[in-house]
Design brief:
CATH architecture: Roll
Order of helices and strands: EHEEEEEHEHEEHEE
Strand order of the largest sheet: 4-3-8-9-10-7-1-6-5-2-11
Helix content: 10-25%
CATH superfamily: 2,3-Dihydroxybiphenyl 1,2-Dioxygenase, domain 1
Number of strands: 11
Number of helices: 4
Distance between the termini: 29 Å
Strand content: 35-45%
Radius of gyration: 17 Å
CATH topology: 2,3-Dihydroxybiphenyl 1,2-Dioxygenase, domain 1
Oligomer: single chain
Length: about 180
């Protein structure tokens, strides 16, 4: 029986409000993206890293507290088994990432999870008292939402929905410098 496999279990509890199918990503907010990528690579062997900048014009909408915002951040992505590791360095604007860094310092900001139905999950979490911290739309049609599950679960949850056929664009940069994109089989 593997992790999350319920075959053979006799469950008597009520059905959960949301059924998480996958932990897709762990995000750490950092002060210096370059130094953090180097540290994760040199000490933990996490990488290679793909680097992107998020903000206008690539993000066509960013909403916090129901109001349009203009934030930007750099992020780096690496795969650790089936889970994506994300580092975010806030660049411009009082984003939730900047607030987190100012109030708590570097650390785990959110965990992205996979569910069968994005809209139903947002609605179910809202019904359970989790407000929307921030949401946004990427020019690719990807929609992301950070749900405030801090009090109930100790960490924010990110939900993402992408259009059919979505493919992540090539990165702006790679780390370490000798990494090759796309990865070779």
């Amino acid at each position: 029986m593997g992790p999350g496999d319920r075959k053979g279990w006799r469950l008597t509890s009520k059905k959960p409000a949301v059924q998480v199918k996958q932990v897709a990503q762990v995000c750490v907010v950092v002060k210096d993206l370059q130094k953090s990528m180097e540290r994760y690579w040199d000490i933990l062997g996490i990488g290679p890293w793909r680097v992107y900048t998020y903000g206008r014009p690539h993000l066509t909408s960013i909403t916090e507290g129901g109001k349009q915002q203009s934030y930007s951040w750099r992020l780096a992505l690496a795969e650790v088994g089936a889970v994506q590791w994300e580092l975010i360095q806030p660049l411009q604007g009082p984003s939730p990432f900047m607030k987190f860094l100012t109030e708590k310092g570097e650390g785990v900001h959110h965990i992205a999870v996979g569910t069968d139905d994005y809209d139903q999950t947002v609605a179910a979490l809202a019904k359970e008292g989790a407000g929307i911290v921030m949401s946004g739309t990427h020019e690719s049609g990807t929609i992301f939402t950070y749900m405030d599950t801090q009090k109930s679960h100790g960490v924010l949850l990110e939900l993402i929905t992408r259009p059919k056929g979505w493919v992540r664009p090539p990165p702006e940069a790679l780390w370490p410098p000798d990494a090759v994109w796309p990865p070779r089989a």
